[in-house]
Amino acid sequence: MSDENNALEQGGGEAVAATQPKNDAEAATQEQAATQEAEKAKEAEAKKAEEEASKRRNRTSQYIDGLKNRASAAERENAEMRKRIEAIESRFPKQEAKPPTMETAGYDPEELARQTARYEVQQARQQWEEQQKSESAARSEQEKVQAYIHRAQAFTSQNPDFEEVVGSIPQQFLIPELQKAVIAHERGPEIAYRLAQNEDELFQLATTRPELIDWAVARFASRLDAAPPQQEAEPAPPAFAPTPTNKPISQAPAPAPRVSGRAPTETPPEKLTDDDWYRRDREQRRKR
C-alpha cells in the first residue's frame, strides 16, 4: 500500500512539475502570455460593447433622420397646399386696397399725397407682417421638431425598442396633421409609442377630421395615465363574528298545538288549480 502511495505521490509530483516553470525566464514568459490573453479578452469585450453602442447610436440617428425627413415632407406638403390655395384664390381676385387717385382724393393734390403716403405705409406694413408670420411659423415648427427629438432620446433610454416599435407604424396612417399634433405634444414620444401598439386607436386618430386632430391627440394622452376602474372589495367579516346559520337553539319545549272551533277557510273547488284539486282530493281519500 505504501508503495502505491509513493508511486501516486511521485506521479503527482511529475504532473505538478510539468505545469510549473523551470526557471524565472519561463515564469516570466508564462506570465506575459497570460497577461496578453487577458488583454485580448478585454479588447474583445470592449469591441463588442462599442459595436452594440454604435448600433444603438445608428438606430437613434436613423430615427432622428426619419423624423427630420417626415417634418420636411410635411413642410413640402404644406407648401404645396398653400400653392393650391393661392391658385384657387387667384381665380377670385380679392378686393385689395387700390392706390389712391385724383378721383378718390377729390382732385385735391395735397389729399392725394396724404392718401398715397398712407397707402405705401400700409402696404409695407402688410408685407412685413406676412414675412414675420412666415418666419415665425417656420421657427416654431423647427423648435417643435427639436424638442420632440430631445424627448424621444430621453424616452428611448427608458424604452430601447422605441425606434423599432414606432418605425413599424404603416405609412398610410402617418398623415401630416397627426404627425404635427404628436410632435407638438409634450408627451409626443410616448403617444407615438402607444399608438404603434394599438391599431384601433391609431386608425381612429388617422381618420379624425383635421380640425379635431389636436383635441383627439390630447384626449388620447389624457387616457395614458388613467387607471382601470377597480371594484371595491367587500369588507371581510370579523374573525369572531357569528355566522348567520349559528342561531341560538332554545331548550324550551315546543308549544302545544292550538285547538280552534273554526275550520280553516277552504278555497272553493272551482277556484282550485288542477294540482291543488288533485292534492285536496288525495288528502281527503287518505283521511277516510
TrEMBL record:
Transmembrane residue ranges: none
Domain of life: Bacteria
Record's protein name: Scaffolding protein
Ranges of biased composition (kind: Basic and acidic residues): 37-55, 73-97, 127-144, 268-288
Feature: compositional bias, Low complexity: 26-36
Region of interest (Disordered), residue spans: 1-108, 124-145, 226-288
Annotated coiled-coil segments of the chain: none
